[in-house]
Amino acid sequence: MKAIILAAGLGTRMRPLTLKTPKPLLPVLGKPLIEYQLERLAEAGISQLVINHAYLGEQIESYLKDGRRWGVNISYSPEPEPLETAGGIAHALSLLGDDPFIAINSDIWCNYPLEQLRLPKNKLAHLVLVDNPGHNVMGDFSLMNGLVTLESKAQRFTFAGISVLSPALFNNLPQPKWPLAPVLKEAIGQGLVSGEQYHGYWLDVGTPERLKQLENDLVAKTAIVEKSSS
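-> structure tokens emitted (230 positions)
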């Protein structure tokens, strides 16, 4: 299975850190955020990767190159301007092929076991959902019997930015620049999106404050591991 790492955002909420550096290259304990994604995908046995980029994307290509350093093969899908998530994925489909693929945001941190990701038969998407963080208390979707729903009265969860998608999901985008949410909602309304709740650590690293939070959490986790092993 191939994977696409979504890295074409402008990173406006991260300013001033992103004035000269694309958000995927912001360091977390001295290592660019996107590098952790490469490592987790490689550990899961996923070696054929596509990375889309727009804002300062040449820096991403210059740093990651062909991915050989991490045991993966990277193809790039540059965008003349950010095409939003659905548009960016559709733009990269020639590199992703005809089979379902993993899509993962470059600006999240999550310990989800990526090797477990599968797209169930006759579905267009499978989403990983998490408990709602403070910055998204209303959530995005509900989950009932393994299906993602738009049921407003059911418990709602936040889309983790990790999914398995069918290329067919992007067959009829209204225009090249298009967000993912309306595409998913249309498929959800047809019962074509499955999902699961993940209970482990997850963080949307969308602001300087959350970037600092991630570093603090990782330092604390390392200290606990070192203490338990001593």
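The chain has one domain: 3-229.
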